[in-house]
Amino acid sequence: MERRLYTARLARKLLLSDPQQCYHLEFTIEDLDDFPFESGQFVSMVAPDQKGKQQTRAYSIASAQRSNHFDLCVNRVQGGFFSNLLCDLEQGQTVKFHGPHGHFVLRSPLTQSIFIATGTGVAPMRSFVQRLFPESGEDRSEGRSIWLVYGTRHETELYYRSYFEKVAAERPNFHYLTTLSRADQTWTGSRGYVQDLVARIVEQNPCCAPQPEPPKEGATFGAYAYICGLNEMVAANRERLTSLGWHRKQVIFERYD
Ligand SMILES: Cc1cc2nc3c(=O)[nH]c(=O)nc-3n(C[C@H](O)[C@H](O)[C@H](O)COP(=O)(O)OP(=O)(O)OC[C@H]3O[C@@H](n4cnc5c(N)ncnc54)[C@H](O)[C@@H]3O)c2cc1C
After folding, report:
1. pLDDT surpassing 70 at residue 66
2. Residue 107: inside a domain, yes or no?
3. Fewer CB under 10 Å: which end of the chain, C or N?
4. Which of 49, 75, 101 is the last residue before a domain boundary?
């Protein structure tokens, strides 16, 4: 199917993590005044490779809707085509894309929610958090407890850490939990995998307790988990949640591989 291609111009670029080479990229869409999307969705970036073959890759939008702008969080993959093209873009250069796409969006009405991410899987989580807890304007979290459980290897890879810490300091119903799998000795926080922190949240918070019966037609579960990252991590968290009694429909996920 022919999709309409838009042109995004790189307005700002920040290196988030030096050894890992992860970039925060802010784009402005040239041919639109407004770009409506739901937090959690992705765009499909399109460019010809060295042989002239059109390549397309998905990237989660790392910001909430804001006129004709969107942010991405992109990891440089060694030998990869598109991640290097994006990470090498200079301010003012353009790239084509289509979208928005995807169903990894917050269920409505909003419930208590556990956001679970590793690496650049944090991109849609930043969009969710910006949407629920905007810096100015109305809080959309409706007082629900929202956890962001974020795991990575090293402390330098906790992307957007100061932003999430600020939101957590300002909003009592937002909880930011991190864990490192290869922390050095100076790290005093949690170690290990995200699923262990997730299990602790479920066991310690009655609002996340398993529901013996799925809700009646049209109703929602009391809590949902939203998982984003590489397949191995997504599978481990789905298994852990279902082993704790969660219904598989309470677990929404986006896989990057
Ligand atoms: C819905 C969706 C959303 C995504 N959102 C993001 C995002 O927000 N940020 C982001 O950085 N990526 C994201 N990805 C991954 C992205 O689409 C690409 O797969 C990734 O950037 C690698 O593309 P490439 O062209 O550089 O590598 P390719 O040229 O496609 O692959 C080169 C080599 O790298 C390996 N490889 C491919 N992907 C990865 C990976 N993710 N990690 C490690 N090795 C890999 C391949 O197996 C291959 O050997 C998302 C994927 C999906 C499906």
Report:
1. yes
2. no
3. N
4. 101
119 lies in which domain range? 112-255
State the distance from the centre of ligand 1 to the C-alpha of 120, rounded, in angstroms: 10
> Quick one: which of 252, 225, 254 has its CA closest to 41?
254
User: CATH number, domain at 142?
Assistant: 3.40.50.80
pLDDT tens-digit readout, 176-213? 999 999 999 999 999 999 999 999 999 998 888 887 77
| Contact 115 CB / ligand 1 (< 6 Å) | no
Question: What is the number of other CB atoms lying within 10 angstroms of the CB of residue 182?
Answer: 11
Q: Number of structural domains, the chain?
A: 2
How close is the Cα of 61 to the center of ligand 1, in Å? 14
254 pocket-lining for ligand 1 (C-beta < 6 Å)? yes
Q: Kindly list the distances between the CA atom of residue 36 and the CA atoms of 43, 97, 99, 228, in Å, as whole numbers in the listed order.
A: 12, 14, 10, 22
Question: Residue 227 domain-assigned?
Answer: yes
Is position 1 within any domain? no
CA of 210 to the centre of ligand 1 (A): 34
Task: Please compute Rg for the chain using Cα positions.
Answer: 18
Domain match, 121 and 243 both: yes
Joined tokens for residue 33:
């005044």
Q: Are 13 and 83 found together in one domain?
A: yes
Q: 101, 130, 146 — which closes off a domain? A: 101
- Residues 83-114 pLDDT 10s: 999 999 999 999 999 999 999 999 999 999 99
Q: Is 192 in the pocket of ligand 1 (CB under 6 A)?
A: no
CB 197 within 8 A of CB 179: yes
